[in-house]
């Protein structure tokens, strides 16, 4: 069971988020709310600002201006409390290659202040959820890309967060691994709020209840997955139209 969510409070809130790197503005005045219990696809071309936005939403990167909240907790000023409710899977997230998946999960649980019994219980759950039993005792550095991605997902789920922010969770996976990850995400979406960055429009149609599309750091579309089109071809065409018109504006 996930942790209690305050009634009426958005799971994720971005309020005029802006991030500049010198003279370059990666994200500009970005605002949206995500209510509990929905999987939201976060789309945009390469360089649109998706990963920068996710890093600000999780507190790993401070905004130049604006704010981000997880269940009403500001991720900059109340980061520890926000992190209790948040699981984050960065794209190509760092793992300790000399550790085993079991060793990593136990280490992370201890770092989070979880009790020994909670670590044992949650480790068993996430190893099963992420299908890691066959490699739980092997060095992470010797695992395939697909298994390393599953280890990262298990780490994000370990403390049973009610909000998940996942940056390209299927990147680099083979078709079988992609399908397994989709099944996992579909199950998780039944009880959690998920913000999922992806380039794969079939994932959007299969999983998402809502789509946020950004380009050049600005929100250019917010609607249901169907609002982009009835099939992948229409979605691709609409995606191109939105990003072209934004670029020309």
Summarize the structure in words:
With 249 residues, this protein is α/β, with parallel strands linked by helices. The protein has a domain at 95-160. 36% of the residues lie in helices and 24% in strands. It has eight helices and ten strands. It has a six-stranded mixed β-sheet, with helices on both faces. Helix 3 packs across helix 4 and helix 4 (116-129) crosses helix 5 (145-157). The longest helix has 17 residues, at 232-248. The mean pLDDT is 91.
The assigned structural class equals alpha/beta
The order of strands across the largest sheet is 6-7-8-3-9-10
The arrangement of helices and strands along the chain is EEEHEEHEHHHEHEHEEH
Summed up, the helix count is 8
What distance separates the N and C termini? 46 Å
Strand elements, count: 10
Which outline best applies? globular
For the largest beta-sheet, the strand count, sense and barrel status come to: 6 strands, mixed
């Amino acid at each position: 069971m996930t942790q209690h969510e305050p009634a009426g409070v958005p799971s994720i809130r971005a309020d005029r988020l802006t991030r500049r790197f010198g003279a370059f503005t990666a994200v500009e005045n970005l605002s949206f709310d995500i209510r509990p219990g929905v999987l939201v696809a976060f789309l945009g071309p390469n360089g649109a600002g998706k990963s920068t936005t996710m890093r600000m939403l999780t507190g790993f990167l401070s905004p130049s201006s604006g704010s981000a909240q997880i269940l009403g907790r500001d991720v900059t000023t109340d980061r520890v409390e926000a992190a209790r409710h948040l699981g984050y899977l960065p794209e190509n997230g760092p793992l300790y290659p000399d550790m085993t998946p079991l060793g990593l999960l136990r280490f992370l649980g201890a770092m989070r202040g979880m009790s020994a019994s909670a670590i044992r219980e949650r480790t068993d759950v996430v190893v099963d959820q992420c299908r890691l039993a066959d490699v739980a005792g092997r060095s992470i550095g010797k695992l395939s890309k697909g298994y390393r991605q599953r280890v990262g997902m298990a780490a994000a789920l370990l403390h049973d967060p009610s909000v998940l922010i996942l940056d390209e969770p299927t990147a680099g996976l083979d078709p079988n691994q992609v399908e397994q990850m989709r099944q996992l995400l579909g199950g998780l979406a039944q009880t959690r709020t998920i913000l999922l960055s992806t380039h794969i429009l079939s994932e959007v149609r299969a999983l998402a209840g809502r789509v946020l599309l950004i380009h050049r750091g600005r929100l250019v579309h917010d609607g249901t997955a169907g609002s982009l089109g009835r099939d992948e071809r229409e979605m691709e065409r609409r995606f191109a139209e939105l990003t072209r018109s934004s670029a020309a504006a």
